[in-house]
Amino acid sequence: MLDDTLLKDHLALTLEGTHLEGLGERYEGKVRDNYSRGDRRFIVVTDRISAFDQILGTVPFKGQVLNQLAAWWFETTKSVAKSHFVRVPDPNVLECIECKPLPVELVVRAYITGSTSTSMWTHYAEGARTFCGHELPEGLQKNQRLERPLLTPATKAPMGQHDVSASREEILAKGGIEADDFDRAAELAMALFAAGQKVCAERGLILVDTKYEMGKTPDGEVVVIDEIHTPDSSRFWMAASYAERFEGKLDPEPLDKDFVRRYYTALGYRGDGAPPPLPPEVRVGAAKRYIEAYERITGASFVPDTDPPLARICKNLGATVRAPEGQS
User: How far is residue 299 CA from its own chain's centroid?
Assistant: First the structure.
Protein backbone atom coordinates (compact mmCIF):
# COMPACT_ATOMS: atom_id res chain seq x y z
CA MET A 1 0.00 0.00 0.00
CA LEU A 2 1.30 3.44 -0.93
CA ASP A 3 2.19 5.97 1.72
CA ASP A 4 -0.46 8.65 2.34
CA THR A 5 2.15 11.34 1.75
CA LEU A 6 2.69 10.19 -1.83
CA LEU A 7 -1.06 10.13 -2.48
CA LYS A 8 -1.46 13.63 -1.03
CA ASP A 9 1.48 14.91 -3.07
CA HIS A 10 -0.21 13.66 -6.25
CA LEU A 11 -3.59 15.28 -5.59
CA ALA A 12 -2.44 18.16 -7.81
CA LEU A 13 -0.81 15.90 -10.41
CA THR A 14 -3.75 13.74 -11.51
CA LEU A 15 -4.64 13.09 -15.14
CA GLU A 16 -7.91 14.94 -15.65
CA GLY A 17 -8.15 14.54 -19.41
CA THR A 18 -6.30 14.38 -22.73
CA HIS A 19 -6.52 15.98 -26.16
CA LEU A 20 -3.95 14.18 -28.28
CA GLU A 21 -2.91 14.31 -31.91
CA GLY A 22 -1.71 11.24 -33.75
CA LEU A 23 -3.93 8.60 -32.17
CA GLY A 24 -7.06 9.10 -34.25
CA GLU A 25 -10.59 10.37 -33.71
CA ARG A 26 -11.33 11.28 -30.09
CA TYR A 27 -14.37 10.28 -28.06
CA GLU A 28 -14.70 11.19 -24.39
CA GLY A 29 -16.45 8.94 -21.90
CA LYS A 30 -17.01 9.52 -18.20
CA VAL A 31 -13.57 8.23 -17.27
CA ARG A 32 -11.88 7.18 -20.52
CA ASP A 33 -10.66 9.23 -23.47
CA ASN A 34 -10.92 7.01 -26.56
CA TYR A 35 -8.93 7.44 -29.78
CA SER A 36 -9.85 5.40 -32.85
CA ARG A 37 -7.45 4.88 -35.74
CA GLY A 38 -8.14 2.22 -38.35
CA ASP A 39 -8.57 -1.17 -36.68
CA ARG A 40 -7.15 0.04 -33.36
CA ARG A 41 -8.54 1.96 -30.41
CA PHE A 42 -6.37 3.55 -27.76
CA ILE A 43 -8.16 3.94 -24.43
CA VAL A 44 -6.59 6.51 -22.10
CA VAL A 45 -7.85 5.82 -18.59
CA THR A 46 -7.86 9.15 -16.75
CA ASP A 47 -8.03 9.76 -12.99
CA ARG A 48 -11.58 11.10 -13.25
CA ILE A 49 -14.12 9.51 -10.93
CA SER A 50 -17.82 9.39 -11.74
CA ALA A 51 -20.90 8.39 -9.78
CA PHE A 52 -24.58 9.17 -10.16
CA ASP A 53 -23.71 9.74 -13.85
CA GLN A 54 -21.67 12.82 -12.91
CA ILE A 55 -17.94 13.56 -12.98
CA LEU A 56 -17.04 14.26 -9.35
CA GLY A 57 -13.31 15.02 -9.56
CA THR A 58 -10.06 13.05 -9.75
CA VAL A 59 -8.33 10.41 -7.59
CA PRO A 60 -4.53 9.94 -7.52
CA PHE A 61 -3.28 6.98 -9.62
CA LYS A 62 -6.84 5.80 -10.23
CA GLY A 63 -6.32 5.56 -13.99
CA GLN A 64 -3.21 3.42 -13.61
CA VAL A 65 -4.99 1.09 -11.18
CA LEU A 66 -8.04 0.68 -13.42
CA ASN A 67 -6.02 0.20 -16.59
CA GLN A 68 -3.64 -2.39 -15.19
CA LEU A 69 -6.36 -4.25 -13.30
CA ALA A 70 -8.56 -4.42 -16.40
CA ALA A 71 -5.61 -5.80 -18.39
CA TRP A 72 -5.02 -8.41 -15.67
CA TRP A 73 -8.66 -9.51 -15.82
CA PHE A 74 -8.71 -9.61 -19.63
CA GLU A 75 -5.74 -11.98 -19.50
CA THR A 76 -7.12 -14.03 -16.61
CA THR A 77 -10.55 -14.56 -18.19
CA LYS A 78 -9.53 -14.95 -21.85
CA SER A 79 -10.57 -18.63 -21.76
CA VAL A 80 -14.04 -17.53 -20.56
CA ALA A 81 -14.67 -14.66 -22.96
CA LYS A 82 -12.71 -13.07 -25.77
CA SER A 83 -12.01 -9.35 -25.43
CA HIS A 84 -10.75 -6.40 -27.45
CA PHE A 85 -7.51 -6.26 -25.44
CA VAL A 86 -4.19 -6.15 -27.33
CA ARG A 87 -1.53 -4.65 -25.01
CA VAL A 88 -0.64 -1.99 -22.43
CA PRO A 89 1.64 0.59 -24.12
CA ASP A 90 1.50 2.95 -21.10
CA PRO A 91 0.37 2.59 -17.46
CA ASN A 92 -2.75 4.64 -18.31
CA VAL A 93 -3.44 3.26 -21.80
CA LEU A 94 -4.92 0.13 -23.37
CA GLU A 95 -4.44 -0.67 -27.04
CA CYS A 96 -7.46 -2.58 -28.30
CA ILE A 97 -9.14 -3.94 -31.41
CA GLU A 98 -11.64 -1.39 -32.70
CA CYS A 99 -15.14 -2.74 -32.02
CA LYS A 100 -18.67 -1.46 -32.46
CA PRO A 101 -20.14 -1.17 -28.94
CA LEU A 102 -23.50 -2.79 -28.28
CA PRO A 103 -26.02 -0.18 -27.01
CA VAL A 104 -26.60 -1.84 -23.64
CA GLU A 105 -24.83 -2.36 -20.32
CA LEU A 106 -24.91 -5.95 -19.07
CA VAL A 107 -25.32 -5.59 -15.30
CA VAL A 108 -25.12 -8.71 -13.14
CA ARG A 109 -26.19 -8.57 -9.48
CA ALA A 110 -25.71 -11.20 -6.77
CA TYR A 111 -26.95 -9.02 -3.88
CA ILE A 112 -29.75 -6.47 -3.50
CA THR A 113 -28.08 -3.20 -2.67
CA GLY A 114 -27.22 0.26 -4.00
CA SER A 115 -28.21 3.90 -3.62
CA THR A 116 -28.56 5.19 -7.19
CA SER A 117 -31.75 5.56 -9.21
CA THR A 118 -30.92 2.40 -11.16
CA SER A 119 -30.11 0.22 -8.14
CA MET A 120 -32.24 -2.80 -7.34
CA TRP A 121 -32.53 -1.80 -3.68
CA THR A 122 -33.83 1.69 -4.55
CA HIS A 123 -36.65 0.17 -6.61
CA TYR A 124 -37.37 -2.54 -4.03
CA ALA A 125 -37.49 -0.06 -1.13
CA GLU A 126 -40.02 1.99 -3.12
CA GLY A 127 -42.29 -1.04 -3.37
CA ALA A 128 -41.33 -2.60 -6.70
CA ARG A 129 -41.26 -6.40 -6.74
CA THR A 130 -40.29 -6.80 -10.38
CA PHE A 131 -36.89 -5.61 -11.59
CA CYS A 132 -35.75 -5.97 -15.20
CA GLY A 133 -38.27 -8.77 -15.66
CA HIS A 134 -37.23 -10.67 -12.52
CA GLU A 135 -39.82 -11.34 -9.79
CA LEU A 136 -38.41 -10.55 -6.34
CA PRO A 137 -39.73 -12.15 -3.12
CA GLU A 138 -41.11 -10.23 -0.18
CA GLY A 139 -38.98 -9.62 2.89
CA LEU A 140 -35.60 -8.95 1.32
CA GLN A 141 -33.24 -6.75 3.31
CA LYS A 142 -30.70 -4.29 1.99
CA ASN A 143 -27.38 -6.00 1.15
CA GLN A 144 -28.91 -9.49 1.23
CA ARG A 145 -27.62 -12.16 -1.12
CA LEU A 146 -30.02 -13.10 -3.89
CA GLU A 147 -30.98 -16.71 -4.56
CA ARG A 148 -28.91 -16.53 -7.76
CA PRO A 149 -27.12 -13.83 -9.76
CA LEU A 150 -29.51 -11.88 -11.98
CA LEU A 151 -28.86 -10.18 -15.30
CA THR A 152 -30.34 -6.66 -15.10
CA PRO A 153 -29.49 -4.76 -18.31
CA ALA A 154 -29.46 -0.98 -18.57
CA THR A 155 -29.67 1.46 -21.43
CA LYS A 156 -26.52 3.50 -22.11
CA ALA A 157 -27.50 7.12 -21.54
CA PRO A 158 -25.51 10.08 -22.91
CA MET A 159 -23.01 11.64 -20.51
CA GLY A 160 -24.76 13.54 -17.72
CA GLN A 161 -27.99 11.58 -18.07
CA HIS A 162 -29.07 8.58 -16.02
CA ASP A 163 -28.95 5.02 -17.33
CA VAL A 164 -32.27 3.17 -17.14
CA SER A 165 -32.59 -0.45 -16.03
CA ALA A 166 -34.75 -2.54 -18.34
CA SER A 167 -35.69 -6.13 -19.14
CA ARG A 168 -34.42 -8.05 -22.15
CA GLU A 169 -37.74 -7.50 -23.89
CA GLU A 170 -37.66 -3.75 -23.23
CA ILE A 171 -34.08 -3.47 -24.49
CA LEU A 172 -34.91 -5.34 -27.70
CA ALA A 173 -38.07 -3.28 -28.23
CA LYS A 174 -35.99 -0.09 -28.23
CA GLY A 175 -34.08 -1.38 -31.25
CA GLY A 176 -30.40 -1.03 -32.01
CA ILE A 177 -29.48 -4.57 -30.96
CA GLU A 178 -30.42 -7.95 -32.39
CA ALA A 179 -31.75 -10.69 -30.11
CA ASP A 180 -28.88 -13.04 -31.02
CA ASP A 181 -26.29 -10.40 -30.10
CA PHE A 182 -28.03 -9.59 -26.83
CA ASP A 183 -28.28 -13.25 -25.86
CA ARG A 184 -24.63 -13.90 -26.69
CA ALA A 185 -23.59 -10.85 -24.66
CA ALA A 186 -25.76 -12.03 -21.76
CA GLU A 187 -24.17 -15.49 -21.91
CA LEU A 188 -20.67 -13.99 -21.76
CA ALA A 189 -21.66 -11.67 -18.91
CA MET A 190 -22.95 -14.49 -16.73
CA ALA A 191 -19.87 -16.63 -17.44
CA LEU A 192 -17.51 -13.74 -16.63
CA PHE A 193 -19.39 -12.99 -13.41
CA ALA A 194 -19.10 -16.60 -12.24
CA ALA A 195 -15.36 -16.55 -12.99
CA GLY A 196 -14.98 -13.21 -11.20
CA GLN A 197 -16.86 -14.46 -8.14
CA LYS A 198 -14.52 -17.45 -7.88
CA VAL A 199 -11.34 -15.37 -8.11
CA CYS A 200 -12.62 -12.75 -5.66
CA ALA A 201 -13.74 -15.38 -3.12
CA GLU A 202 -10.21 -16.82 -3.14
CA ARG A 203 -8.94 -13.29 -2.29
CA GLY A 204 -11.35 -12.68 0.60
CA LEU A 205 -13.66 -10.46 -1.44
CA ILE A 206 -17.31 -10.64 -2.47
CA LEU A 207 -18.04 -9.65 -6.07
CA VAL A 208 -21.42 -8.06 -5.35
CA ASP A 209 -22.40 -6.76 -8.77
CA THR A 210 -20.77 -5.51 -11.91
CA LYS A 211 -21.41 -4.12 -15.36
CA TYR A 212 -19.96 -5.30 -18.64
CA GLU A 213 -19.83 -3.59 -21.99
CA MET A 214 -19.77 -5.69 -25.12
CA GLY A 215 -18.91 -4.90 -28.72
CA LYS A 216 -18.68 -6.58 -32.10
CA THR A 217 -15.37 -7.09 -33.84
CA PRO A 218 -15.04 -6.30 -37.56
CA ASP A 219 -15.80 -9.98 -38.31
CA GLY A 220 -19.02 -9.85 -36.23
CA GLU A 221 -17.93 -11.63 -33.04
CA VAL A 222 -19.35 -10.38 -29.72
CA VAL A 223 -16.51 -9.69 -27.26
CA VAL A 224 -16.11 -7.91 -23.93
CA ILE A 225 -14.74 -4.35 -24.16
CA ASP A 226 -13.88 -1.37 -21.95
CA GLU A 227 -13.08 -2.90 -18.53
CA ILE A 228 -14.06 -5.81 -16.30
CA HIS A 229 -14.12 -6.33 -12.54
CA THR A 230 -12.50 -3.03 -11.57
CA PRO A 231 -13.51 -0.84 -8.61
CA ASP A 232 -15.28 1.42 -11.13
CA SER A 233 -17.36 -1.24 -12.87
CA SER A 234 -17.89 -3.54 -9.90
CA ARG A 235 -18.90 -3.50 -6.28
CA PHE A 236 -16.59 -5.39 -3.89
CA TRP A 237 -17.20 -6.12 -0.22
CA MET A 238 -14.82 -7.53 2.38
CA ALA A 239 -15.96 -11.12 2.91
CA ALA A 240 -14.67 -11.52 6.48
CA SER A 241 -16.95 -8.86 7.96
CA TYR A 242 -20.00 -9.24 5.70
CA ALA A 243 -22.10 -11.59 7.84
CA GLU A 244 -21.59 -9.69 11.09
CA ARG A 245 -22.31 -6.33 9.49
CA PHE A 246 -25.38 -7.68 7.69
CA GLU A 247 -26.79 -9.06 10.94
CA GLY A 248 -26.13 -5.70 12.59
CA LYS A 249 -27.87 -3.90 9.70
CA LEU A 250 -24.65 -2.09 8.85
CA ASP A 251 -23.42 -1.49 5.32
CA PRO A 252 -20.65 -3.90 4.29
CA GLU A 253 -17.05 -2.70 4.05
CA PRO A 254 -16.56 -1.45 0.47
CA LEU A 255 -13.44 -1.77 -1.63
CA ASP A 256 -14.62 0.24 -4.63
CA LYS A 257 -16.04 3.64 -5.50
CA ASP A 258 -19.01 3.01 -3.21
CA PHE A 259 -16.80 4.75 -0.63
CA VAL A 260 -17.30 7.94 -2.66
CA ARG A 261 -20.98 7.26 -3.38
CA ARG A 262 -21.65 6.92 0.36
CA TYR A 263 -19.94 10.27 1.03
CA TYR A 264 -22.26 12.02 -1.44
CA THR A 265 -25.34 10.11 -0.29
CA ALA A 266 -24.65 11.30 3.27
CA LEU A 267 -24.68 14.86 1.90
CA GLY A 268 -28.06 14.18 0.29
CA TYR A 269 -26.65 14.30 -3.25
CA ARG A 270 -27.86 11.68 -5.73
CA GLY A 271 -26.87 13.16 -9.06
CA ASP A 272 -29.22 16.06 -9.59
CA GLY A 273 -27.47 19.35 -10.28
CA ALA A 274 -23.79 20.15 -9.88
CA PRO A 275 -22.03 17.87 -7.38
CA PRO A 276 -20.39 19.28 -4.24
CA PRO A 277 -16.57 19.39 -4.37
CA LEU A 278 -14.70 16.16 -3.64
CA PRO A 279 -12.52 16.88 -0.57
CA PRO A 280 -8.85 15.82 -0.41
CA GLU A 281 -9.41 13.25 2.35
CA VAL A 282 -12.10 11.49 0.31
CA ARG A 283 -9.88 11.50 -2.79
CA VAL A 284 -7.03 9.92 -0.80
CA GLY A 285 -9.40 7.44 0.85
CA ALA A 286 -10.73 6.41 -2.54
CA ALA A 287 -7.19 5.98 -3.90
CA LYS A 288 -6.27 3.68 -1.02
CA ARG A 289 -9.31 1.49 -1.67
CA TYR A 290 -8.63 1.29 -5.39
CA ILE A 291 -5.03 0.27 -4.73
CA GLU A 292 -6.02 -2.29 -2.10
CA ALA A 293 -8.52 -3.83 -4.53
CA TYR A 294 -5.77 -4.13 -7.15
CA GLU A 295 -3.34 -5.73 -4.72
CA ARG A 296 -5.87 -8.15 -3.23
CA ILE A 297 -7.17 -9.31 -6.60
CA THR A 298 -3.86 -9.62 -8.47
CA GLY A 299 -1.69 -10.65 -5.54
CA ALA A 300 0.92 -8.12 -6.66
CA SER A 301 2.03 -4.80 -5.23
CA PHE A 302 0.85 -1.72 -7.08
CA VAL A 303 3.88 0.25 -8.27
CA PRO A 304 2.79 3.64 -9.65
CA ASP A 305 4.57 5.51 -12.39
CA THR A 306 5.09 8.95 -10.87
CA ASP A 307 6.29 10.69 -14.04
CA PRO A 308 4.04 13.49 -15.36
CA PRO A 309 1.33 11.39 -17.03
CA LEU A 310 0.55 13.48 -20.10
CA ALA A 311 4.18 13.81 -21.22
CA ARG A 312 4.77 10.11 -20.56
CA ILE A 313 1.72 9.07 -22.60
CA CYS A 314 2.82 11.25 -25.52
CA LYS A 315 6.30 9.72 -25.43
CA ASN A 316 5.08 6.12 -25.17
CA LEU A 317 2.47 6.44 -27.92
CA GLY A 318 4.18 8.89 -30.24
CA ALA A 319 1.41 11.45 -29.78
CA THR A 320 1.39 15.20 -29.25
CA VAL A 321 -0.92 17.43 -27.24
CA ARG A 322 -3.64 18.98 -29.39
CA ALA A 323 -3.92 22.77 -29.33
CA PRO A 324 -7.17 24.14 -27.85
CA GLU A 325 -9.98 25.03 -30.25
CA GLY A 326 -9.29 28.26 -32.15
CA GLN A 327 -5.53 28.11 -31.60
CA SER A 328 -2.81 26.81 -33.88
Answer: 20
Measured in degrees and rounded to the nearest 5, phi and psi for residue 18 equal: -135, 150
User: Cα separation of 44 and 58, whole Å?
Assistant: 14
With residue 223 as reference, give the H or E element that holds it: strand 222-225
What three-state secondary structure class fits 157?
A: coil
Query: Which residues are within 8 A (CB) of 260 and not within 5 positions of it... i.e. 6 or more apart?
Result: 49, 51, 56, 278, 282, 286
Strands 20-21 and 48-51: unpaired
Backbone phi, then psi, for 53, in 5-degree steps?
Answer: 60, 30
Choose among 218, 285, 272: nearest CA to 52. 272
Number of helices and strands in the chain (H, E): 9, 16
Helix axes 258-266, 280-298, angle to 10 degrees: 150
Give the H/E segment covering residue 236: strand 234-238
Q: What is the pLDDT of residue 162?
A: 63
- Neighbouring CB atoms inside 10 A of 62's CB total 27
* Cα separation, 103 vs 122, whole angstroms: 24
Domain 4-321 has CATH 3.30.470.20: yes
Residue 160 has pLDDT above 60, yes or no: no
Cα gap 216→224, rounded to integer Å? 9
pLDDT for the residue 327? 45
Contacts 24+ apart (CB under 8 A), 133-136: 133/167, 133/168, 133/169, 133/170, 136/112
With residues binned 3-state (H G I as helix, E B as strand, rest as coil), the percentages for the chain, rounded to 5, are 35, 25, 40
- Model confidence pLDDT, tens digit, residues 92-141: 999 999 999 999 999 999 999 987 777 899 999 999 999 999 999 999 99
Counted residue by residue, the chain has a size of 328
> Where exactly are the structural domains of the chain?
4-321
Res 323: pLDDT: 63
